[in-house]
Amino acid sequence: MNAPGTPLLSVENLTVRYRLGRSMSGRAKTFTAVKDVSFTIGAGRTLGLVGESGSGKSSIGRAVLRLSPISQGRIVFDGQDIDAFGRRTPLSFHRDVQVVFQDPLSSLNPRQTIADTLGQALTRHRPLSRAERDRETGEALDRVGLAPHHADRYPHELSGGQRQRVAIARALATRPRLIVCDEPVSALDVSTQSQVINLLQELQRDLGVSYLFIAHDLEVVRHMSDEIAVLSLGELVESGPAAQVYDSPAHPYTRTLLASTLIADPARQAARTAQRRALRAESTAAAAAAGGGAQKHP
Ligand code: ADP
Ligand code: MG
């Protein structure tokens, strides 16, 4: 446990540079994808990291997971500089920090049943008997709103939303303290988006897990973020409490991102309005039903 008031995750002046081979003169060429980015996430809190495609969001998420280079600056998780781990990432870090990606179809093994996928995740860091594993697999499905019969299915037999529920259950299997959610709902249709966001919020209330929630869409992170950080071309242009960033955006880029939710195309505009309405209805329903029974999504 970290001391009270200390953030669970602290990203300090992070710069991520990729090597692009060598120039004709033999000098190493690099590309700076993230420059001097700082933010913190407290225990049980959500930071929404938003920006256009290519702005460096995934590079930051991957750096937190130790998958992108930390070229400058530091990332401190639970009081530990994660670069100081060296080549071997401690098991405790793998347990504590998990990830949910945009496309569960490519991150789930197509030849494994859901029960096998979850069973494997549950036993990776903890020895469990067969009976314990089966029981915990059932509990894991239930926690994300799936039914027992989903255990025997393969990923391609599930809907996109159900697959993302499996990916969330798998991430939760190690009882993480932080989940990097990299555009977890971007591939889903509007009503499924709001259900999955609602589920993530419910899980946060119950388990106290923190989220680094990445999205290119400001509307998606609005209802679940405590803090928002806006990224443009690898640099943070604005960050602060969600209400402040939405209600009085300080930076022109943030205003543009917010305004781009008012789209000229009527079809997209209608979808957008439906999305906003669905997200709002879900969060109202969630608040009313807080602590109530879990819904099933067959
Ligand atoms: P986002 O998630 O916001 O779309 P990314 O972090 O994926 O942005 O990418 C930021 C920039 O870094 C992009 O220009 C991308 O092409 C580049 N980039 C990402 N990964 C690599 C890599 N492994 N090597 C070189 N360039 C990369
Ligand atoms: Mg990305």
How would you sum up this structure, described in words?
- It is a single chain.
- β4 (72-77) and β5 form a beta hairpin.
- α6 runs parallel beside α7 (190-207) and α7 packs parallel to α11 (266-289).
- The chain is an alpha/beta fold.
- The model is unreliable at 291-296 (pLDDT under 50).
- The chain contains 11 helices and 10 strands.
- The structure holds adenosine-5'-diphosphate and magnesium ion (MG).
- Adenosine-5'-diphosphate (ADP) binds next to β2 and α1.
What is the chain-wise order of helices and strands?
A: EEEHEEHEHHHHEHEHEEHHH
* Dominant shape: globular
Cα separation of the termini: 38 Å
The helix fraction, in percent, is: 25-40%
Query: Radius of gyration in whole Å, from Cα?
Result: 20 Å
Q: What is the mean pLDDT?
A: 88
> How many beta-strand elements?
10
State the name of the first-level CATH class of the largest domain.
Alpha Beta
Task: Please name the CATH architecture of the largest domain.
Answer: 3-Layer(aba) Sandwich
The biggest sheet, with number of strands, parallel, antiparallel or mixed sense and barrel status, is: 6 strands, mixed
The bound ligands are:
adenosine-5'-diphosphate, magnesium ion
β-strand percent reads 15-25%
